[in-house]
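Page 47, continued from p. 46.
Same chain as before, 410 aa.
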Amino acid sequence: MTDTLNLDASLVALLGGAVACAVLIKAYFHRLGIPALVGYLLLGFLLRLADVQWNFMTEIVWQAFRLMADLGIVALLFKVGLNSHPSALAAKLPQALPVWTGDVLVSGVVGFVTTYFLLDVALIPSLFVATALTATSVGVSLATWEEARALDSPNGQLLLDVAELDDISAVALMALLFAITPVLLTGNGHVWNAVGNAAGLFLLKFSLFIVFCVVFSRYAEPQLSRWAAGIRQPPQRMLIVVAIGFLIAAFAEWLGLSLAIGALFAGLVFSRDPEAVKTEKSFEDMYAFFTPFFFISIGLHVAPGSLTQAVWVGSALVAAGVLGKFVGAGLTSWFTLGSSGALLIGASMIPRAEIAMVIMHQGQQFGRAVVPDNIYAGMVLVTAVTCLASPLALHPLLKRWPQKKGAKHA
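Result:
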């Protein structure tokens, strides 16, 4: 009994210390102009180094961090879906579609070619890297655009639209990849027939899940929102919304679609009436509490012994990540936005963070054959470098080409 209490106390102290460190990182990194997620990654890696010395990460502690990381993924993807506006995005699709198509295709192909041919990595890890590199993290660039008062400009709105499409497509590709990975791992002679069958089953499940979300959004969500609005205490209203979101995410996991895609679509379900959700401070508090654990967990999973190889692998993946987005998004937007607009869009799409690392983190659950340690550590380096470099590049570009609300594309 005493040992159990001591373990519980140690675990609570460790989680509490991680929360306190995350708060300090958020505050001080903001002053330095560095994305807080870089600090969270570093904190997780420092915990891993400390564990090498003192061996305090027992299986129970790992399970606790794993649970907190899963809750962080759900909160993260729920907010991504919540901040998306499917109807508004559909109206702007004709303008955003060419940029998004080139962006995803070029970044995915460059990522796969770099990993599979240049780094001589196996097929499955190369597919995971390629899928991860199709995503972006516009939130990193967003602060720079807001600081320059450029977000309401046509170029700023196009950036948001393309980034939303990026997030949704990357999560969908991730779910498809998860469906075919067990089949690819078998490596039998009829693998491609099996892959086709697995992909077909996934598309059936995915379609049914989308139908469920559309029906829920159209018929159940308005009733639920009206009922929740009658509750006097705002935190309780938000807890109902979040609880439904968590249940939808769990339902997607049970269907074999993953928590991430369930959380994304749960957010999309409630995005039709976002004001009631966004104004509730309680969700922001939950988001701020859980999401650092996802990035801390990523740092925890970086094996110190993989760092030597990760520098070479990570450098190649950083080059692929920068080239893929800069060319993919920049070149396709050149024809409609001109050179200055293309440079701005291309530079803004470079950061990889949340969705990219969700893909790698979830892929690691299949084992090292799917996401080897050096590839995982290399993608962590991609996250750190691209999230630091993109804002540094954007500051002078936005000063040279100021963006104004309602102005023509510059």
